[in-house]
Amino acid sequence: MATAVSAAVSLPSSKPTSSLPSKTSVLFLEKLSFNKVPFYLRNVSTGWRLVSIRAQITTEAPVKVEKISRKQEEGIVVNKFRPKEPYVGRCLLNTKITGDDAPGETWHMVFSTEGEIPYREGQSIGIIADGVDANGKPHKLRLYSIASSALGDFGDSKTVSLCVKRVVYTNDKGEVVKGVCSNFLCDLKPGAEVKITGPVGKEMLMPKDPNATIVMLGTGTGIAPFRGFLWRMFFEKHEDYKFNGLAWLFLGVPTKSSLLYKEEFEKMKEKCPEKFRLDFAVSREETNEKGEKMYIQTRMAQYAEELWDLFKKDNTFVYICGLKGMEKGIDDIMTSLAAKDGIEWAEYKKQMKKGEQWNVEVY
Ligand SMILES: Cc1cc2nc3c(=O)[nH]c(=O)nc-3n(C[C@H](O)[C@H](O)[C@H](O)COP(=O)(O)OP(=O)(O)OC[C@H]3O[C@@H](n4cnc5c(N)ncnc54)[C@H](O)[C@@H]3O)c2cc1C
Ligand SMILES: NC(=O)c1ccc[n+]([C@@H]2O[C@H](COP(=O)([O-])OP(=O)(O)OC[C@H]3O[C@@H](n4cnc5c(N)ncnc54)[C@H](OP(=O)(O)O)[C@@H]3O)[C@@H](O)[C@H]2O)c1
To answer: What number is the average pLDDT over the span 218-239?
Structure first.
């Protein structure tokens, strides 16, 4: 059971409107094919080895082993509310959290749930905007990553929060087009009703291991699930969970005025400096020593060796959330690092995925 929250909602001051051992001995079973050799062994210190084995043939039916998740998946609720019968909550608060000079607007909003939407950190909800589409049909739902911990911003498990970027763009005809749902949400006034579906999603659930290293890589509103993680880790007290590992957040935004939840994260760092590392990548205002744009992967490259050492641990869990294109840049830096150890990153990442250590939700 969860208990008290030790921090009030703190929004930025911008104008509101199995444990395998480490490096030397890690040996994972990579790929075992009974009818054809080769059999690969991944040994982190020596790289890939090709080993010949004799094929084994058995006539017994294979035992079905139920997969036990390393993430906080037990008892999880999905799709309690569906589009035909959504939960109707109310907007309790809606605040712009980007500065006036930021490119684009991002809003933080809190909805009442009366405890009816039992979500976990890392899940998403669906929102159905009021009104109808061009065919006179109700709008389709849009998904949004939940930006609060399971306890919610008020600590009573009766709210859910989102972090939403207002989508506005100019189409081929030169017309300004406003995204349906993001504009509906960013314009919501306190007291207004909002149709909610879900909760959904298991990819971004936190690891069970309270001693895990959790590396969070977010761009823009991709910060949402990580705010939930970090509140649970650093702002709340839980009888059954005390975070004792290392949390490392990398957040990429275009300008300093677009940094999301900066004050909250800095407070966490002040509270637990030994357990929390925080790095921003401000793409339009910072560059690296080569003068290249500071993207999240550019910032990560500055800690490349350290990150690679962490990625080699069996209790490191990596989470990526935000822009679709961001994973490629991260792959690029990891490819060269892994190669130094004679490891092929694509294969290594596949194994991390299998172990639920590489978790991606991008759009
Ligand atoms: C799992 C998941 C989690 C998500 N979490 C979040 C979140 O936490 N916060 C958040 O803000 N969003 C999040 N999104 C995105 C969100 O679901 C919506 O897609 C987004 O808000 C846009 O919806 P809309 O109704 O405002 O726009 P729509 O009316 O659906 O219009 C969007 C469409 O407009 C077009 N378009 C958009 N920009 C341009 C452009 N520059 N040029 C040309 N065409 C363009 C594209 O076709 C795009 O599909 C998430 C998506 C997923 C899948
Ligand atoms: N779970 C999900 O799937 C989920 C959750 C939340 C949000 N989202 C999506 O994530 C996106 C976030 O958008 P946003 O508007 O909130 O972000 P934003 O404020 O525009 O910030 C995005 C940052 O990423 C940088 N960037 C652009 N291309 C990149 C690349 N290839 N690699 C690394 N960084 C890159 C941008 O730099 P420049 O602009 O300077 O090039 C900017 O600094 C949206 O598409 C949103 O729908 C998805």
So the answer is: 98
Q: Is residue 221 part of a domain?
A: yes
The identity of residue 122, as a single letter, is G
Nearest CA to ligand 1 atom 50: 144
Q: How many domains does the chain have?
A: 2
Is 318 in the same domain as 244?
Answer: yes
Q: Is pLDDT larger for residue 87 or for residue 34?
A: 87
The 10s digit of each residue's pLDDT in 299-325 is 999 999 999 999 999 999 999 999 999
Let me know if residue 311 belongs to a domain.
Answer: yes
Mean pLDDT value of segment 272-277: 98
At 66, is the pLDDT very low, low, confident or very high (cuts 50, 70, 90)?
confident
Residue owning the nearest CA to atom 28 of ligand 1: 179
pTM across the whole model: 0.87
Q: How many whole angstroms separate alpha carbon 10 and alpha carbon 262?
A: 10
Q: Which residues are the active-site residues?
A: 144-145, 321, 361, 363
Q: Which domain holds residue 196?
A: 87-200
Distances (CA, A) of 138 to 130, 132, 151, 186, 195: 8, 4, 31, 19, 12
115 shares its domain with 173 = yes
Query: Using CA positions, which residue lies closest to atom 27 of ligand 1?
Result: 179
Query: Is the CB of 361 within 6 Å of ligand 1?
Result: yes
Is 217 found in the same domain as 195?
no
Residue 307, classed as helix, strand or coil, is helix
- Domain containing residue 290: CATH number: 3.40.50.80
> Does residue 321 fall inside a structural domain?
yes
Distance in Å, CA 82 to ligand 2 centroid:
28
Question: What whole-number distance in Å separates Cα of residue 198 and Cα of residue 119?
Answer: 9
Q: List the binding residues.
A: 145, 165, 221, 253-254, 283-284, 293, 322-323, 361
